[in-house]
Structures are given as C-alpha cells and as structure tokens.
User: Which sequence fits this backbone?
C-alpha cells in the first residue's frame, strides 16, 4: 500500500489500516475516532481507500459502511 500513497498519506491512514487488519468494516464515525480528525477528513481518508480498491462503500455518503475487499 505504501506504493500507492505518499509516506505522509500512509501515516495519516495508518490508524484506519491497522483497525481494518482485525475488522471487516468501518464507519466514518469510527475513522474519525481513530484518527482524531473531523468527519469530513475521516470521510476523505475512507474515500481514498475506497478509490484504490481496499474498501467498498455500502450506503450513502453520510451513513456509509466501508467493507474490506
């Protein structure tokens, strides 16, 4: 995954990536809690993972559950 992201991006996403090692799904609220970032930023982080095929969004933007592939 480091090949897809810059080191800085990878470090920002690391709490989410580590969480997903033991969990099959994550919500924006959980990403927000893990990273300490705003809901909009947490959503952007999950969108990045969705865009590269690590996660698949299920539901609408505000209530999406992101599932691991």
Assistant:
């Amino acid at each position: 995954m480091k090949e897809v992201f810059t080191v800085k991006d990878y470090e920002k996403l690391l709490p989410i990536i580590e969480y997903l090692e033991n969990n099959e799904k994550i919500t924006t609220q959980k990403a927000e809690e893990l990273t300490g970032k705003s809901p909009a930023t947490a959503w952007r982080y999950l969108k990045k993972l969705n865009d590269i095929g690590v996660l698949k969004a299920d539901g609408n933007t505000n209530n999406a559950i992101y599932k691991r592939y």
